[in-house]
Amino acid sequence: MSLEDLRNQTFPLKAKEDWKDKAEESLKGKSVEFLKSSTYENIVLEPLYSRGDEKHLSEYPGGSDFRRGINPLGYVTNDWRIAQRVSYKNAGELKDKLQETTGKGQTALSFEVSKNLWEIEGTLIDLLGNLPKDIPFAINGKGLQKTLLEELAGACNAEQLSGYVANDPLSLFAEEGIISEEFFSEWLKGIKLANEKLPNLRTVLINTSNYHHGGANAVQELGIAAATGSFYLQHLLESGIKLEEALTKMIFQFSIGSNFFMELAKLRAARILWDKITKVYGAEAEDRGMQIAAETSLFTKTVYDPHVNILRAGNEAFAAVVGGVQYLHVTPFDDVTGSSQLSERIARNTQNILKDESHLRTIVDPAGGSWYIEALTTELAEKAWHYFQEIEAKGAMLEVLKSGWLKDEISTVHTKRMQDIFTRKQSIVGTNVYANLAETVAPAKEMIADNYFENGHSTIKINAITNTRLSEPFEELRKISQRIKGRLGSNPAIGMICLGERKQYKPRLDFMKGFLAAGGMRVAESESIISLETAKQFILNQDTKYFCLCGTNDQYESIGHDILASLNQEFSDRKFFLAGLPEKEMRTQWTNEGIKQFIHLNSNCFETISLLLTEMEVAIDEVSKA
User: Fold this and answer.
1) What's the pTM value of the predicted model, to 2 decimals?
2) 2 assigned to some structural domain
3) Per-residue pLDDT reduced to its tens digit, 51-77
4) Which of 360, 389, 422 is the last residue of a domain?
5) Is 246 found in the same domain as 377?
């Protein structure tokens, strides 16, 4: 073929039906419908999106419904702020760290506000020095917001201070399980005063992170954000603040989870909702853009194999930036056990890499026009709008917190998530899959709850939305295994009775190793067993009471039944399991011959190991007492 012929080559046009036929050919007769999947938001994901799925789109960023961002040129002219929360033990350390980090890429002043900030000589303004003149704040003040704002209002350049020092009382109420109307009233007064003395500082936070860490799905987070934002906006207007001023006081905070496209679409959908709400209030287009502060999720982070958290946070940060945030905090990989200088540096540099090496600040809306992302954004926004309306119909945010309805809604989704983690339909690398038994880790740091509601406030108790991490249940199993190891000298074990040749039993042996390692358990592997006598000798040489037959289905049928029947009769105090799930009509026979449980791909890994470890620990206690 000549070069000219090559240049003139074209590809024939293909329709979606052509792709469908080819896909079903690869699926060996299964319908392409088999490839559809459902999310925790009850959104059905299609296996292929095409131009036919295209929805009405904004023509350019900064226009229409703001799904494509609030600035026409994106980060080219309005770069996102690196808002890493600086950790510290005392005010002096904070001062030094802020000076250091702002010289190494940090572009927003961000840190947790605690009472020991005021345990210093001089004022907070002295501690911050000249930094606030050029660098905006990015602070969730929580219950100490009022004290912090009063300090900042006394600065000589108060009118120039920018960024946000904000608080979300409703989120605090949900987290602590207490509603204080007096606290909310005082907070509202503080916002009005700050509006006069700190005109360029945002002070009203709509923080959905607490609900995210409780297990909420994206639809719930968006509906809650819309309802909370509407609740605060209404109160600001009733307090006498003008609409355009009120909107400049508000900023939304989202935690970004591991589902890349869903989290990206979540941020885009959030702007659609806020544009729709503020338009109803009569806001002009230039005032309807949503300011977003994001943080990578703590919900997805693990104690074990913590370096995988670098990948998780990188993926989440990427989604946040492509989604169009204004401020971003990346969780250090060892944050669960207490961050280090190294992990904080890696977290900060993750954003520098996204800016300078991935060039995300030079491309305007890289997700724009993707058929999948646009369709997902639209469906997410529609579902979230209905959820927002449901909250409003039940009396708005304060009432759904009081009634416990919101807590129950989030708990339902959280239960589904945990069930998928327990059965390993959702993988947590290093925790419920590919766990390393030789790994030693520091314990998770204790989270000390701040009590912001003093006894003097009139309070109403509600059901708190507890912050959790997906990996915690398996981490608890590892703790139990460690306790048993401390008493026995080795990890708790199950003896594997390996039937036939190695090539026959190895696939299921490897499965069992991974299955048990998720709970800190090991396997005691036999040599190839083809006779009853070798099986008996193996059992006699083991310290454990728990054994599992492991082999192919053919091996089970040819020698497994006979070996099991004899072993169960001779070793009546032992417990026997089977790796795999026989056909339904065969299970009764296996059970009658002594199999306590079938361990297979669809088994509840957490429940199975939890029962085993509990029995083992109880048995050890009984021996110790005897």
Assistant:
1) 0.94
2) no
3) 888 766 667 888 889 999 999 999 999
4) 422
5) yes
